[in-house]
Amino acid sequence: MPVTDTVLPDDQLDREATLAKYLEERDKRLRAEGNDQYINVTDEFEHYVEDPYVEAVEREPLNDEVTFAFIGGGFAGLLTGAKLKEAGIDDVRIIEKGGDFGGTWYWNRYPGAQCDTAAFIYLPLLEETGHMPSEKYTHAPEILEHCRRIGRHFDLYDNAVLSTEVTELEWDDDAKRWIIRTNRGDEMRAKYVGVGTGPLHRPKLPGIEGITSFKGHSFHTSRWDYDYTGGDPSGALMEKLADKRVGIIGTGATAVQCVPHLAKACGELFVFQRTPSSIDIRNNHAIDPEWFATLQPGWQKEWLENFTLLQTGGFADEDLVMDGWTDISQRIRDKVVEHPERGFGPEALQQAYFDSDDEKMAEIRARVDEIIADPETAEALKPWYRQLCKRPCFHDQYLQAYNTPTAHLVHTDGKGVERIDETGLWANGEHYELDLIIYASGFEVGTDFARRSGFDMVGRNGLALSEKWDEGMLSYHGTHVRDFPNAFIVGPSQAANLISNVPHNLTERGNTIAAIINHAESVGAEVVETTAAAEDAWVDRLEHGGRRFGGDPTCTPGYYNFEGQDAGRRGTLNSMGYPEGPVAYFEYIQEWRTTGDFEGLEFT
Ligand code: NDP
Fold first, then answer.
1. Contact criterion met (CB below 8 Å) for 110 and 229
2. Any idea which of 161-165, 313-317, 501-505 has the lowest mean pLDDT?
3. Pocket test residue of 29, 39, 223, 391 for ligand 1, highest count of atoms within 8 A of CB
4. CB 52 within 8 A of CB 225
5. How many angstroms is it from 355 CA to the middle of ligand 1?
6. What is the pLDDT of residues 471-491, one digit of tens each?
7. Across residues 240-252, what is the average pLDDT?
8. Strand 187-195 relative to strand 177-182, pairing
9. Which end of the chain has fewer CB atoms < 10 Å from its terminal CB, N or C?
10. Whose CA is nearest to atom 43 of ligand 1?
11. Does residue 3 have a pLDDT over 50?
């Protein structure tokens, strides 16, 4: 939208100019290829996804049967497994391609990795396992250890199958069992399957010309090569980089956390930036055990509900979590209260959101000026988009890292890296000679289920899930899919869709699945399946209910908005949540599972 000639009040004039700048910056970055600008990490790129942490242990192929098999050993599998065990379903097997539990926290061991949501709500089952987070925002090694703790506490290791990738998952309608085939030659059967392969599970590489020609070393941030760099996941100095020229491509949430460590260690560091992230204050601190001991039983549920309520626009007497997420909502609420003349309808809420976002982004840009010594670098690090267009980042050392004389920001003004050759890479027409290229280029999000998961799921009458979801996800409650009996999808979509704290979605899903299996087993059912009518009605309600994640067309491209492409109905279906929001969904699903009717499911 151009800045108009009409005479506008000062604050509105600023808004118009800011929005014009947002659109100008967005347009520099829009690419016709959308998601296709990235490389699928197969064939010659396969080594980028190999497990660098654990050697797979030789074992005989399995040919057996379990009651519940879960694919994915991250929080989705751990939480579903834990809830099933609590409900008395003991025969649970988690199948995981990594060498241990942890999912994203198994793979992401880059230096500085840390949760961006407060540990008291992000780390699930804290009361059950008796763990006190050491910091408000815990670092990755502690999170990985917590995943293991859950595994041990609920005896999930006993029957787990690790370093094993599912290759085929097929429903046998005669036997009423799922057949699970793997890359280790297994052919297991399961009465029920759960699928929780995660939204950010498969690394992607930028499709930069010449990417295979580089003769130096390279890796993706989710497969950090400490043998090459030295150091370790706890953040010890990467002493082997002292004489190296290192390039890192990407400046998303991952790069923001590892760049400060690289800046300390590298002979020379070059950070290739296409779009700057928004970097707000972190304010991390250690947890006081005396204070922790004062928390009363049931505290974690209370904290989860308080966070979700406040983060999604509700009112509560107290903000228990007090972090960047609840701060965003608090500011919006304050603006609503400041302007009673606007009323309290959706338009007033939207206006309040714009006001608070303009203020917040101005603060974030001012913070860059306060921290960065070099004015040109400061200008390049300023984000020109609304805070929720991309994953908001919070860090107290990232911007500061650019004041290190050996750390160089290479701002490509939306163009990205031009080309890679044998000795380094090209950006802004200049060649950068490098020993190491680190790809902080993110993960596949908008691509189809089979490509992201590495296997397809074949339901009744040979129907593949990728076929059923060709035009987007179709489900009942985000969990059940017609023609895929006894199968349970575990993720945020078509349900609460609470992106700011994904484990909360998974905890509730675990509770729901445990209740369903308990009921199915108690009535002696062989098959549990959603009715076509329930699935249709659910999809229809959500699709026309208007609550969708990442739909702002003025946003700069990224995985939050399908790289700025119109993803059509598919995009809507894949990213939509319960129309009344996460709090209402959690209330709805709790009531649904406790009434015992399980309306919309058939038990036969
Ligand atoms: P992202 O997808 O957020 O970032 C990828 C980066 O690569 C972007 O900066 C992108 O630029 C850049 N890029 C892509 N192609 C090129 C190119 N050709 N030249 C130059 N740059 C390029 O991936 P991340 O791994 O950083 O984060 C993914 C998600 O993982 C986060 O959004 C978050 O949800 C999660 N995460 C969570 C953390 C936590 O909770 N603590 C920590 C880290 C990650 P552009 O922006 O222009 O597209």
1. no
2. 313-317
3. 391
4. yes
5. 27
6. 999 999 999 999 999 999 999
7. 98
8. antiparallel
9. N
10. 254
11. no
Cβ 360 vs Cβ 383: under 8 Å: no
**What is the percentage of the chain residues whose pLDDT exceeds 70?**
97
Taking the alpha carbons at both ends of the chain, their separation in whole angstroms is 57
Q: Are 460 and 152 in contact (CB under 8 A)?
A: no
Q: Where are the domains of the chain?
A: 65-202+452-603
Residues 6+ apart with CB under 8 A from 42: none
C-alpha to C-alpha distances, 550 to 204, 232, 330, 504, 560, nearest whole angstrom? 20, 35, 20, 20, 5
- The number of helices, as runs of H, and strands, as runs of E, in the chain is 20, 21
pTM of the model: 0.94
Q: Which CATH superfamily is domain 65-202+452-603 in?
A: FAD/NAD(P)-binding domain (3.50.50.60)
What is the rounded radius of gyration, in angstroms, for the C-alpha atoms of the chain? Answer: 24
What is the 3-class SS of 550-597, one letter each residue? CCCCCCCCCHHHHHHCCCHHHHHHHHECCCCCHHHHHHHHHHHHHHCC
Nearest to 270 by CA among 442, 444, 431, 448: 431
Percent of the chain as helix, strand, coil, to the nearest 5: 40, 15, 45
CA–centroid distance, residue 514 to ligand 1 (Å): 35
8 Å CB contact between 582 and 503: no
**What's residue 551's pLDDT?**
62
CA distance 426 to 433: 9
Whose tokens are 């815990």? That residue is 138
Assess contact for 102 and 144: CB atoms under 8 A: yes
Nearest to 224 by CA among 245, 208, 248: 248
Q: What is the DSSP string of 204-226?
A: EEE--BTGGG--SEEEEGGG--H
The candidate with the shortest Cα–Cα distance to 68, out of 164, 197, 193, 189, is 193
For residue 55, give the 3-state DSSP assignment: coil
Name residues whose C-beta falls within 8 Å of residue 295's C-beta, 6 or more positions apart in sequence: none
Does the beta carbon of 151 lie inside 6 Å of ligand 1?
no
Higher per-residue confidence, 474 vs 452: 474
Closest CA to 259 of 403, 411, 442, 398: 398
Segment 68-89 shows an average pLDDT of 98
> What spacing in Å lies between the alpha carbon of 206 and ligand 1's midpoint?
11
Span from the CA of 250 to the centroid of ligand 1 (angstroms)? 6
Could you give the CA distance from residue 152 to residue 78 in angstroms, rounded to a whole number?
A: 10
Angle at 491 between CA 196 and CA 485, to 5 degrees: 65
